Amino acid sequence: MKLFKKIMSWVSTILIASILIYFVGMYFWPDEISEFAGYRFYTILTGSMEPTIPTDSLVLTKLVPEDEKIKPNSIITFHADRFGNDIVLTHYFRTTEKNQKGETIYRTQAEGVDKYDDYQTKRKDIIGTYVGHVPFMGKVFRFLQSTWGIMTLLAILVMLIINRIISMRLDKAEDNGDKVVFKEKQHRHKSDDPNQGIIIRDTDMLVMKHSMQMRGIVVNQTTQNITFLKVKIKFTDKEGHVIDSVPWYMVGAEGLGLHEEKRWSCTIERDDRIEKCQFEILSCRRSWK
């Protein structure tokens, strides 16, 4: 299981890095990247090919060299001139005709329309042929092609790298005889307890060569600010017998406001019998300020 998690961590990091490299490349050098890959993604912005290709689908197009023949009734992606603006469309290619100048025109047609498009599409305008599509992924693709999308991918990649570094340090600690035991339990008080609303959660225990460090998060969900929160940490064995206990200030004079949380840690001498821990709040000061 541990090896599987390591592999998946590396795979996810490499995958995000590859996606980031692709979109950065497409942002700055779209033609060069597409020519190298031989394929290119496009987003369907209209319903002209529904229901075969829904609006906002992500279409994969195979680039076709100009000397390669295209079969009639194929779906193609091509450049078109719409009111002086260069746009990219994905329609059916039906047949070829000669215009008044004797040039070969590729006649295209939208889905469900009984006449050809008005575009004078030449062979050099055709980008490639349709391979397949993923419904509704076009919106995601457009976002990832934007500056904000690339920044989002970069942020995710940085977080994955940081997570990988932390995992490697924890693994190194285990190799040195240390180990981390994650409890991930939440300690709440009963409804009649005056300290109801003080929550201790996400606790874990770092077992080192000569010592043990208990860590976690304390959350203030009471109706007042609290200071000098004193807690008795009871360390127990597997059966729940108390082996050691330590009074500990999880919150000091700095205080903990409403709905705030704080990390805490407590270090004791190593005892291999210790398996679990319990918490008992001894005292705390409350205030409205």
From TrEMBL:
The keyword Membrane applies. InterPro entries: Peptidase_S26 (IPR019533). The chain crosses the membrane at residues 7-29, 143-162. One of its GO terms (molecular function) is serine-type endopeptidase activity. GO terms for biological process: signal peptide processing. Keywords: Membrane, Transmembrane, Transmembrane helix. This is Signal peptidase I. It comes from Copranaerobaculum intestinale.
